[in-house]
Amino acid sequence: MPIRWDKFTVKAQEAIQRANELASEHGNPELAPLHLLAALVEDKEGIVAPVLEKIGIGPQAVLSDLYKEIEKLPKVSGSGGAAPPAMSSQINQVLEKSFKEADTFKTNTFRPSTCCWR
Known about the structure:
Number of helices: 5
Helix content: 40-55%
Largest sheet: 2 strands, parallel
Strand content: under 5%
Shape: globular
CATH topology: Double Clp-N motif
Order of helices and strands: HEHHHEH
Number of domains: 1
Strand order of the largest sheet: 1-2
CATH superfamily: Clp, N-terminal domain
Distance between the termini: 20 Å
């Protein structure tokens, strides 16, 4: 699925960018839903951390668990310039579901709040 960045809000673009950075920082060859979820939880100006707090779940505890799971993902090592992480089939599925969900709301842009984690 080619990504149409014009279909993303600025906040969604920032979340994807941060997720990509997380994948790179951890040496992961693919961008996975875990990276995106961690990026969304990290965003103090976003809606995920406040929602977690509202239901009595500490965002820092969730982030700690997410980072542990990210550490378990496959890594690439070696010399030379590391290639940027590729989009995994799972993240493509998440984005595709998000676009479909956005269609049900009659919106033309992807927002982080429309992510489907099912």
